[in-house]
What we know:
Helix content: 40-55%
Distance between the termini: 74 Å
Strand order of the largest sheet: 1-2
Strand content: 5-15%
Radius of gyration: 27 Å
Number of strands: 4
Number of domains: 2
Shape: elongated
Structural class: alpha+beta
Amino acid sequence: MESIIKDLRHALRGFLKRPAFSVLAVTTLALGIGANSAIFSVVNSIILRPLPYRDSSQLMVIWGNLHNNGLDEIELSAPEFVDMQRESRSFESLAAYSVQGFNLSGVDQPERLRGAAVSATLFPTLGVNPLLGRTFLPEEDKYQHDHVVVLSYAAWQRLFGKIAEGG
């Protein structure tokens, strides 16, 4: 214990003799620790923490590829997905999604919303149930069927919450 105290006194005297070096050393340590903490927070939230879905460790994304054309991650077409869904014996469930923008009209101001076109199997595959209402029915996956939408709670509150509260 006594040798640690001697080492600390010696280090303190060295820092007091060279204050510019001391400030530089402390600043470098502070920046390094801060950057390390920030990077760990991002890695932890994106990679290390499990996704908020049932059996999230068993989820995977399937991409198509056209190596000859230099395209390694392309979305499967709807017919490819249907074929894979029909022929696959390795997966418990398959679901498809495609991130898109949608136009919302019929409210005060038309608005562009960010969302996804999804297969009816997406919510059951993720093990997610809606807070209100229902998810998609299998027959709603058919081409030219009525368009059905599932809104996030935040979108429902922002767009239609006033109507629900008032009437």
